[in-house]
Predict the structure.
Amino acid sequence: MEFTLNGAPLVVHVADLTVAGWTGRDPEAIRHHIEELAEIGVAPPSTVPLYYRTAAALLTQENRIQVVGGGTSGEVEPFLLAKDGVLHIGLASDHTDRDLEAHSVALSKQACAKPVARELWLFEEVAGHLDALELRSWIKEDAAGDWIPYQDGKVGSIRPLADLIEGSGLDVARERGDCTAMLCGTLGAIGGVRPAAAFRMELRDPVLGRSIGHSYDITVLPIVA
């Protein structure tokens, strides 16, 4: 994969990918997310947070993904990437098969591509104001429709990223110099979790006045019995 870092290309080969789940900082926010997923049949987690290992090949920077069936949806998340001992932050969507999630969250995380924005920032540049970083997403419920606000909040509503880095083992991998990545959890959905024809997301830094964005279309493939 090729990213842009401070205007220069950064080519990486991600060896390991972790998707952190149930990462809300506020217990009430976690309860809300558990309840909204329970409405679509997802069992509550055994503990929080949980760290799901998924195939690194799921990461994609394409503007279109293909999914099987109409029961999938995106989630805007901070994206952490460790390369050569240096930590970076970016933006990704934990696109998930909600129908499969009702049977196994771990398998649902493996079923869909994980779109990633093409720009990264150095983690050290935002470490002092991480909680102020803003996350937003929008969806088109049909291809010809308008963008509808879907998620809106701050990284401060997610468990401290330092805790997730330690809990996932990303800190150990970073010290070894491994190229590893993690999606760090999401926000509640405005109007409930639901599928869409297109997904747009943004990570905004109000302190340094910059943002990272990405959007992608979702092509639904038929379920063949």
Summary: The first helix runs from residue 27 to 38. Residues 130 and 155 are 7 Å apart (CA to CA). The longest strand covers residues 210-221.
